[in-house]
Write a structure and sequence with these properties.
The protein is α/β, with parallel strands linked by helices. Among the domains are: about 10-175 and about 205-250, 3-Layer(aba) Sandwich (Rossmann fold); about 460-595, ANL, C-terminal domain (GMP Synthetase, Chain A, domain 3, 2-Layer Sandwich), CATH 3.30.300. The protein is about 40% helix and about 20% strand. The strands form 7 sheets. A 5-stranded parallel sheet has the order 4-3-5-6-7, sandwiched between helices. Helix 14 (about 355-365) links the parallel strand 13 (about 345-350) and strand 14 (about 370-375).
């Protein structure tokens, strides 16, 4: 039985190394193979990094930044920073170099770990050479730049030279000291820096055993950016707490093959990943024969009916059990094999999951457990595995308390709360009030304690006649349309609601009437008449489920997807609405210039 309660992140790692022993904990892809590290090797690497940082002059409270994709060396460095008593600030490696340098200046980093020489040169070319900062390469080598191997060797020698060194480093800080400085992605405004203590992190991980059944016999695939709380807590620290081996993904392009190799039992991903899998399946079904399509849809109907019984806690009738067994054999097993065939804890987080998408995964016997967390509050809500309620983010985890303000804003009190914004007491005082975190999310709580998100306070649309529209609710109705890649709802201070859509060109080419469009420019494909007709059908279908004031009256199809390069997406693929509106203002002005028209 592992200890619970306030302690440092390193103490949690030490407990896990003692409990789980000499078995592989981390697996890093290298040249087509995996290099594995046992729990004691993981612990020792972290100790060496901590001692090496101490030798480099890093002390308690110093900020050390990390710029890297998620990989084993990041784990060693990240935990090493926290173990020496410093504060780990992971950057989004996909951000423009200028933004990353701004973050380094803003947090006052004393040392920076970068993934490889290419990343180092990328920052240097943007002006990082002018910063008074020490640099360490996690992989590769460059003249005059310390490598992670050299830092570890220095730390190893220091530990041998002074047997009391590590105990001295540990005694210099307490669980109440800061461990992480989150550099947020800035989906709804300027990025902020959020301070989190060791105690908040370890108590958050202690909530895990009561929420999900995971252990050393499980495994997971890590691919999310380590700057995001879902990866940092869910896949770096929680897996360490519960002894779950982590396999690192080499890249998104290689993930389909990695699923078959790793065969994870636990996988955490944002809705965008689950949406893409669904769109891929739907697109493939369209290419199949009429009889195969009928089999697929019939199987999905059977799966949906079975899900209704399970959700109601009722046993399946004999006929339905038999039908489901056949549907599973003919259809569902093949879809689940895309994830390796062993996935039993599938979690969706980091953004709202549409109810329709959740229904699809329930139907194929791979229900998604939707959860909720935020940088300022930790991971604090999850659907119970045996009582998953679609459309909700689940129930508060033990120790977390939710309530609603008069405006229906979700307020959170929990031992996992961050301590505030770095060097910004004024904004901190506006968000943390009397022990309650004002999350900025609007929602409801039902009689059974399930929490529902209806939208973001900053993103709520108030029409010119005072009607309130929640974009999340409307946009969620389009998540299972394979033709639609992205969308944004508009209408604040306007007389009616409109939308901008981006289209999946590969899905567009499967539509009837598109046979002569193969090989044509994307701009022609997405604006072809069959695409417009299909999009009108999808909008009309969604409008039937909406109140008149919520219905989309006009829309435009854009020639390209929203992108991070254009500032329209965060590194975690959330849409920056303000930037989209700025970049496509001419389309919006055009829609509101003429009269209202039903679509």
């Amino acid at each position: 039985m592992l200890r619970m309660g306030p302690r440092s992140v390193y103490q949690m790692l030490e407990e896990s190394a003692a409990a789980y022993g000499d078995v592989p904990a981390l697996h890093q892809p290298v040249s087509g193979k995996y290099e594995s590290y046992t729990w004691p090797q993981y612990r020792d690497a972290v100790r060496e990094v901590a001692a090496g940082l101490s030798e480099a002059g890093i002390v308690k409270g110093d900020v050390v930044a990390l710029g890297s994709e998620t990989r084993v060396e990041f784990y060693f460095a990240d935990l090493g920073v926290m173990t020496v008593g410093a504060v780990a600030a992971a950057m989004y490696s996909s951000n423009p170099a200028a933004e990353q340098i701004k973050s380094l200046l803003g947090c006052g980093a004393k040392l920076v770990f970068v993934e490889n020489p290419k990343y180092y040169k990328f920052l240097m070319a943007a002006g990082a050479a002018d910063l008074n900062i020490q640099w360490v390469l996690l992989t590769g080598a460059l003249d005059g730049v310390t490598t992670l191997g050299e830092l570890r060797a220095t730390g190893r020698q220091a530990l041998l030279r002074d047997p009391e060194l590590f105990a001295h480093l540990q005694s210099a800080y307490t669980p109440q000291d800061f461990a992480i400085l989150y550099l947020t992605s800035g989906a709804t405004g300027e990025p902020k820096m959020v301070q989190v203590t060791h105690q908040a992190l370890t108590l958050n991980c202690d909530m895990g055993p009561g929420a999900v059944e995971l252990g050393p016999s499980d495994n997971t695939l890590a691919f999310l950016p380590s700057a995001h709380i879902a990866q940092r807590i869910g896949i770096e620290l929680l897996t360490m707490r519960m002894g779950v081996p982590v396999w690192f993904s080499e890249s998104l392009a290689r993930m389909p093959g990695e699923f078959k190799t790793v065969r994870p039992t636990f996988f955490l991903a944002p809705p965008r990943v689950w949406e893409r899998i669904y769109a891929s399946v739907s697109m493939e079904i369209r290419k199949r024969s009429a009889i195969q399509q009928r089999i697929f849809w019939a199987a999905l109907g059977i799966g949906s009916e079975a899900a209704k019984y399970r959700n109601a806690g009722k046993p399946l009738p004999v006929w339905l059990r038999s039908a489901l067994k056949l549907a599973d054999k003919l259809v569902f097993t093949r879809i689940r094999e895309r994830f390796g065939g062993r996935l039993r804890v599938a979690v969706s987080g980091a953004a709202p999951l549409s109810k329709q998408l959740g229904e699809f995964y329930q139907a194929i016997c791979m229900p998604l457990m939707e959860g909720y967390g935020l940088t300022e509050g930790g991971i604090v809500c999850l659907n119970p595995a045996n009582a998953n309620r679609l459309g909700s983010i689940g129930k508060p985890l033990p120790g977390a308390e939710f309530r609603l303000s008069e405006e229906k804003e979700i307020l959170l009190k929990s031992p996992t709360l961050a301590s505030g914004y770095f060097n910004d007491p004024e904004v901190t005082a506006q968000v943390w009030i009397d022990g309650w975190l004002h999350t900025g999310d609007l929602g409801d709580i039902d009689a059974d304690g399930y929490v529902y998100i209806t939208g973001r306070k900053k993103e709520m649309i108030v029409s010119s006649n005072g009607k309130k529209v929640f974009p999340n609710r409307v946009e969620g109705l389009f998540k299972t349309e394979p033709l639609i890649s992205q969308m944004i709802l508009l209408g604040d201070k306007q007389p009616f609601v409109t939308a901008l859509f981006t289209v999946n060109p590969l899905s567009a080419l499967t539509l009837n009437g598109m046979e002569n469009m193969t090989g044509k420019p994307v701009e022609e494909v997405v604006n072809a008449a069959p695409v417009l007709a299909e999009l009108k059908r999808a909008v009309a279908k969604a409008n039937k489920q909406l109140a008149p004031y919520e219905q989309i009256r006009k829309f435009r199809i854009l020639d390209r997807d929203f992108s991070q390069d254009a500032g329209e997406l965060t590194p975690t693929m959330k849409v920056r609405r303000v930037k989209v509106i700025e970049n496509f203002r001419h389309h919006i002005v055009e829609m509101y210039a003429g009269k209202e028209e039903n679509v």
